[in-house]
Amino acid sequence: MEKVKNNSLETTVTDFILLGLSHPPKLRTFLFLVFFVIYALTQLGNTFILLMVWADSQLHVRPMYILLGVLSFLDMWLSSVIVPLIILSFTPASKSIPFGGCVAQLYFFHFLGSTQCFLYTLMAYDRYLAICRPLHYPVLMNGRLCTMLVAGAWVAGSIHGAIQATLTFRLPYCGPNQVDYFICDIPAVLRLACADTTINELVTFVDIGVVAASCFLLILLSYANIVYAILQIRTADGRCKAFSTCGSHLTVVTIYYVPCIFIYLRAGSKSPLDGAVAVFYTVVTPLLNPLIYTLRNKEVKAALKRITGGRGATKENK
C-alpha cells in the first residue's frame, strides 16, 4: 500500500517508488550484470586493501595506511547503501522502499559521503606533514592522533547526515511517491514534498556547500604547500618519489569532488545527466579507489609480496 489516509482531505506517503536509472528495456539484463560485477569487484577490492593493511606489520602502524583502510571501509558501506537497490531496479522485483527505509538511505548516504569528504582532507593533511614537515611528522601525526582525527570525522559525518535527514523528512509528503532517481537523495525527494522547500534547498546548498568547499579548499591549500616543498627538492628522483606519494590521493579527490559539486550546486536541476554523474561518484569511485591506490603504490605492492612470499620474500628484502 503506497498511501494511507491521514484525514478526509489529505493522504500520507508510507513508501516511495524509486524509478531508477532510465534505460532501454533491451539493456536491462546487461545493466544488471554490469552493476552486479561492479558491486562484487568493489567489495573484493576494498576488502583486499583492508586485509593488506591489517596483515602487514609495516602498514597498519602508519597513519597514511590507517586512513586508507578507513577509506576502503567507507567505500564498502557506501556502495552497499546504493548499488544493491540499483541492481534490483533491473529485475521484476518491487521498486518500492518503505518511508523509514528512504529516511535511512538518505541518512547513511550523507553520513558516509560527508565522512569520506572529511577523510580525504585528513589524508591531504597527512601528506602535507609527511612532505613539508618530515622531521616532525612522527610527533605531529602519530597513531593516537590519527585515530582521534578519524573518530572526529565519523562523528561530524554522523551529525551532518542526521541534519540532512531531519530537515528533509520533517516536511509533509502527501502526494506523489515516485522518486525520479535511483536512490532517496535530497533533491529528488524534496520535489515530492507537500510544502514550500525553499528553506530546505537553501540550507542544503549552504550546509553541503560549506562542508564540501571547506574540505576542498583545505586540500588545495595542503597541496599548494606540498607542490612548493617538492619543487625545492634538488634531485629529479626525489621530486618524482614525492609526487608519486600524492598522485593517487589527488586523483581520487578529483574524481570524487567534481561530480559532487556538479550535482549539489545544481540542486534544482532535472537534467538526465545528473543521474549519470551521480552514478560515477557513488558507484564507480568506490571501485576505482582500490585500483588507484594499489596500482600506483609501491609500498602496497611490496606488502603484497611480503604477505604472499612469506619468509622467502623477507630474506630477499634483507
From TrEMBL:
The chain positions of domain G-protein coupled receptors family 1 profile read 45-293
Residues crossing the lipid bilayer are 30-53, 65-87, 107-125, 145-163, 208-231, 243-265, 277-295
The protein's matches in InterPro entries, at most eight in alphabetical order, are given as: GPCR_Rhodpsn, GPCR_Rhodpsn_7TM, Olfact_rcpt
Q: Which GO terms describe its molecular function?
A: G protein-coupled receptor activity; olfactory receptor activity
Q: Name one GO cellular component term.
A: plasma membrane
Q: Which domain of life is it from?
A: Eukaryota
Per UniProt, what is the membrane topology?
Multi-pass membrane protein
UniProt main location, coarse: membrane
UniProt cross-references to Pfam families, sorted A to Z: 7tm_4
Enumerate the UniProt keywords alphabetically: Cell membrane, Membrane, Olfaction, Sensory transduction, Transducer, Transmembrane, Transmembrane helix
Q: Where in the cell is it found?
A: Cell membrane
What name appears for this protein in its UniProt entry? G-protein coupled receptors family 1 profile domain-containing protein
Q: What's the gene?
A: LOC100920933
